[in-house]
Amino acid sequence: MNAPGDARRPSEESEPELVLSPSETAAHNSAMRIAGARRGPTSTQKALASIVLGFELFIVALFGLTIFGLSALEPREMGLFLGGGLALTILVGLVGMRRGRFGIVVGWLVHILMLLTAIILPMSLIVSVLFTALWVYCMVRGARIDRDRAAWLAAQGDAV
Fold first, then answer.
1. CA-based angle 38:44:46, to the nearest 5?
2. How far is 53 from 134, CA to CA, in rounded Å?
3. Strand extents, DSSP E, the chain
4. Comparing C-alpha atoms, which of 96, 32, 93 is closest to residue 57?
């Protein structure tokens, strides 16, 4: 029984700690590796950038299909090549997120190219501007979170 000043519930004392089986541990570790998780410091800015670029991958594929379907370019297949090329650039950016700042630089290039698709498909400007605004917000906010985390960790190191 808990002491009168103890705020813990009675069931908290008897709850066992979660233990994974070897196969569950292997599956968890594989999923974390595939997702890009690693030991050591992580970057919120890169994580946010990966999320935005991942969603844009679908958008540029739809841009390409729309350009193809509307025959906005001659020959029609150029729309597919344009969408595919932009999607390939996004994939390069996503892979580059693991290698320094390369992925973020490619992300900026992707947004410039997305804005330029408005020359061919004017309605794409709306979506491109929205995603570019989201990208800028994620870059600014992610960098601030990373700086604050580094300062907090430095303060924790001084306190210990």
1. 75
2. 10
3. none
4. 93
Q: What is the pLDDT of residue 39?
A: 58
Task: Note the Cα 111 to chain centre separation in Å.
Answer: 15
For the whole model, what pTM was predicted?
Answer: 0.72
Residues 6+ apart with CB under 8 A from 11: none
Distance from the Cα of residue 135 to its chain's centroid: 10
Give the residue carrying structure tokens 């700086």: 147
Residues 6+ away with beta carbon under 8 Å from 62? 83
Which stretch of 38-42, 49-53, 132-136 has the lowest confidence by average pLDDT? 38-42
**Hey, what are 50's tokens?**
């990966």
Helix (H, G, I), strand (E, B) or coil at 9: coil
